[in-house]
Write a structure and sequence with these properties.
mainly beta; Pectate Lyase C-like; Elongation Factor Tu (Ef-tu), domain 3; 2 domains; six-stranded antiparallel barrel; 3 helices; 5% helix; disordered C terminus
Length: 566
């Protein structure tokens, strides 16, 4: 049905809504009769089976060699071992601190594995040679572009192109189109926001003129017909000159596991995932983000799981606030599709994930976020997630436990058709400057907000307000230009102390929008863990900085007072 514009729901609670809440309180499970809710077709994609490393992260057991710290520069020895390691095997790093003077680049087909987070440390030294401490970096570049002439409809996997000369099965491609700046054929798409022209000229092909795109893989070629691995996420439009472009320089099936990267002194990016397919980080701690803790670009079907990313680092010499413009991002994403950021912990940063440029079809799920700040004295609360430039589309944010706001701003352009499902989001009362649990600005359209738990009783004082009203703590800050396109259903909020329903839409929620059942890495906490239909509505969270991510079964963690379950 047509999405309902957000409004104060207090006059809309019916006996059926109250009966539903009573059932939840008594049983912990929603049992209102009716079909299971599903997103409208134009607002969803098939995330299940189409995100993260295909077949999941492999458990490699063959150790090619084990290295120990030398006490001097260990970069050359690690890179030499990586170069010599056979496909499918592991370069193992023993306990201790390895000093890194030149960046470590993991090749395709192998795993660089430490002896455990906090046990093995890669210490990026001051004056390090290169752009990062450790990474999986194919050095990608964009090749020649060819017109897409047919097969433009959402859900298709077969497209027709002007030529396939020089292309091969297995190639990674970017499918994009010109920005629809007027919103003639769909949502407004632009790389120019409130910061004005020229906008994010670097964020896409055509100097920012093609910020709506999808990375994909070719699985077969017949004449000018190309079959893709992942269905198209939306209808591309012939009037916007859709094109397909090969991404050259790709690494595959490489992983970094079970170690800490100490980036406090190197003044560079901590980890690079750049030009990758079916690659991963697992059990990795990053301590120190100067600009981008993890730079994640031109990639497809990667996984970042069970990692801990924290501590912004000021640029040297310190001439202003500790974290200022373009600093202390956890994961910076540009031209990434079908990837999975799952079960991680983020704290003491400006943002967890910052999306700018074409980022589509990704799943950001079951992460724990707390104590995010932006200022010299660390008193200004920052975002849990930020859509910070054109054009993030069709990304799913599910099951995240965040103390700080979700924000889709209009500083560097547009975003659309993103989904928030079963998240717990509330503001940090120690840093009260941030006004909204969810903030959607003027170019953030067609968002779907389903089954979430928002706010802390007594802190947020308004259900919804305009984004210009920054003096009011509200559940939603919505620009009036996009509020009518925002779909809100089955969310509990602390202002009304109840659940808002969207008309007669089904009240029974699915457990997940990308998982068919409880995942194998899940711990002892009930699943699903968050929602108005479970009791308690969200689990206790770990103290900041302790242990592994919040739902790991092997660690006993004590919750901070703020996040005790309702």
């Amino acid at each position: 049905m047509k999405p309902e514009r957000i409004q104060d729901p207090r006059s809309r609670f019916t006996q059926r809504s109250l009966a539903f809440m009573l059932l939840v309180a008594l049983t912990g499970v929603a049992s209102v009769a009716g079909a299971t809710y599903s997103l409208p077709v134009d607002r969803s994609v098939v995330w299940q089976g189409n995100v993260g490393v295909q077949g999941d992260i492999p458990a490699r057991t063959s150790i090619y060699t084990t290295l120990s710290p030398s006490g001097g520069n260990d970069s050359a020895a690690i890179n030499a071992a990586i170069s010599a390691c056979p496909a499918g095997q592991v370069v193992k790093l023993g306990p201790g601190t390895f000093n890194i003077d030149a960046m470590i680049n993991v090749k395709s087909g192998i795993t660089l594995r430490g002896s455990g987070m906090g046990v093995t440390t890669l210490h990026g030294n001051a004056g390090i040679t290169g752009y990062y401490v450790v990474g999986i970096d194919g050095g990608p570049s964009l090749g020649t572009s060819v017109a897409v002439t047919a097969g433009l409809a959402k859900g298709t996997t077969t497209i027709t192109t002007g030529s396939t000369t020089g292309w091969s099965v297995g190639d990674i491609v970017l499918i994009d189109q010109l920005n629809d700046t007027a919103g003639t054929y769909g949502p407004v798409v632009s790389s120019i926001g409130t910061n004005g022209s020229p906008g994010e000229t670097w964020a896409s092909r055509g100097n920012g003129a093609r910020v709506e795109g999808q990375v994909n893989k070719i699985v077969s070629i017949s004449g000018t017909s190309i079959t893709l691995e992942t269905p198209l996420y939306w209808d591309f439009n012939a009037a916007l000159t859709p094109q397909i472009t090969k991404i050259n320089g790709i690494k595959t099936m490489a992983g970094i596991e079970d170690l800490t990267v100490d980036n406090q002194t190197s003044q560079t990016n901590g980890i690079e995932i750049y030009g990758t397919v079916n690659c991963w980080l697992k059990g990795v701690e990053l301590n120190g983000s100067v600009q981008n803790g993890i730079e994640f670009e031109k990639s497809y079907r990667d996984t970042i799981r069970s990692c801990k990313i924290h501590e912004g680092v000021p640029a040297l010499p310190v001439t202003g606030p500790q974290y200022y413009s373009s600093r202390a991002y956890g994961i910076f994403m540009n031209i990434v599709s079908a990837s999975l950021i799952e079960n991680n912990q983020f704290y003491h940063l400006d943002m967890t994930t910052c999306m700018s440029g074409p980022n589509s079809g990704n799943v950001i799920s079951y992460n724990y976020i707390n104590e995010m700040y932006y200022s010299e004295d660390m008193t200004w609360q920052s975002d849990s997630f930020s859509l910070h430039g054109g054009h993030a589309r069709a990304n799913l944010f599910e099951g995240n436990l965040g103390v700080s706001s979700f924000e889709a701003d209009d500083i560097w352009g547009s975003s659309s058709h993103n989904v928030l499902f079963r998240n717990r989001i509330t503001l940090d009362q120690k840093r009260p400057q941030r006004a909204f649990d969810v903030a959607l600005y003027s170019m953030s359209s067609y968002f779907s907000i389903i089954g979430n738990v928002f706010g802390t009783t007594g802190f947020e004082t308004a259900y919804t307000t305009a984004t210009s009203n920054i003096d009011t703590h509200a559940i939603y800050g919505l620009d009036p230009a996009i509020s009518a396109s925002t779909l809100v259903h089955a969310n509990w909020d602390s202002v009304t102390n109840g659940v808002k329903w969207n008309g007669t839409d089904d009240h029974v929620l699915p457990g997940s929008l990308y998982l068919s059942s409880k995942p194998g890495w899940w711990g002892s906490i009930p699943w699903p863990a968050i929602g108005p239909d479970v009791s308690p509505m969200y689990p206790a969270a770990p103290a900041v900085g302790t242990g592994t991510p919040w739902n790991a079964s092997t660690v006993v963690l004590s919750p901070p007072t703020l996040l005790k379950a309702q």
